[in-house]
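Ligand: zinc ion. Inputs:
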Amino acid sequence: MFAGHLGAAMIVGSAARRVNVGLLFVAALWLDIALWVFVLAGWEAVHIPPDFMATHQPRFDFAWSHGLLAGALWSAAATLLSYRLLARGATGRVATALWIGAAVFSHWLLDALVHVPELPLVGSASAHVGLGLWRHMPLALGVESLLVLLGLWLFLRGCGLSRPRRWTLATLALLALVFTILGMTVAPAPPSAQAMAFSSLLVITLLCAAAWWSGRTAQRRMPRSPRA
Ligand SMILES: [Zn+2]
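Predicted complex:
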């Protein structure tokens, strides 16, 4: 899943209006950012199976980025870091930090929905979970498309962004959806795990930078609470 995570980020963004949507994209994709960095570092592994062209599903060994415990810890760390970085006394400081943490954990929940049972609960030797919606690819891609459309609809209503920025964000999300669908249906096998990691990190960086630009004017100064 890729574009569906952006849908989740925008759903969170519709409730956490003070957070730049580009930052929420980073949060919702954080487990994948960690995965690809760890693959390049040799700490996690991605295997391209011989039947890749039939399933379009690599096999993952990714306890540090995508384990349930790891996902909960990444989410808690994002919540604490956001709380620390937000202005002291800012209205909604706790809620905003919790929303950013929720965006991080949404990644694990959505991956657990689509992946075959390969997400470890703790370490690589622990039990693995995954509801395997990718075994029913049209259904999985339908759910992912709905997430993106729902996220766009909820976020763009009342976001306060200028028209060019709204169009940029919608174009980014829909392009991500098109590439997700192509990637899960007709794309050729990647040449190597390293190439997959490099290209994924490049795409995520460009996407989040463009989303951050389109979300800039949505940021408002956080009003101080009267007691601060
Ligand atoms: Zn993932």
